[in-house]
Amino acid sequence: MFDLPLHPLVVHFPIVLGVLLPFVGFIFWWGIKKEIVPQRVWVLVAALALVYSVSALVASELGERDEEKVEDVVSERVIEEHEEDGELVPWVAGTLFFVSLAGYLRQNSDRLRLTLAILSLIAIFPLVQAGHTGGELVYKYGAAIAHLPSKQQIKFNSGDFKLRTFKSSENDKDKDRDKDKDHDKKED
Fold first, then answer.
1. Distance between CA 46 and CA 51 in Å, rounded?
2. Residue 167: its pLDDT value, please?
3. What secondary structure letter does DSSP report for 36?
4. What is the DSSP string of 90-148?
5. Which of 28, 34, 54, 151 is the most buried (most CB within 10 A)?
6. Per-domain residue ranges for the chain?
């Protein structure tokens, strides 16, 4: 059965879109201001902001689903910190969408479009904070362990869990065998 969490997969969409939005906003604002492109192309910025908003909302909801399982491994305080950071992102993204939509609906509104570009640049900070606390959950506090099958969780917690990586040379393989032999001797 597919037991991988979807939140870590989906959460990368709002991160990428949230980082792209200010750059696309500045480029289109400048292009419209210099009359290189027509004002109606701003609809692309509004569409990007809409997709950002929806993906942020979906990522937040999927994070809520994963919370119970991760609480078995990580303290609730650490999870709540990430949850609070993550719940802010859909609100910020939604606000940016409405500002971008107003920039599309109001003709000759260079200030409104520039405001969207500046706000979306500032909005990267809560996005980075949510990503940082999420990364800490996985890499510092071991939240990914919650999604391992039970047998692997037991092995991991007992210290008997080994990750195997591909080695390209025979010399590396020999070193690994020597390490495994040394490890086996220590256990006996």
1. 9
2. 45
3. S
4. HHHHHHHHHHHHHHHHSTT-HHHHHHHHHHHHHTHHHHHHHHHHHHHHHHTT-GGGGGS
5. 28
6. 7-147, 160-188
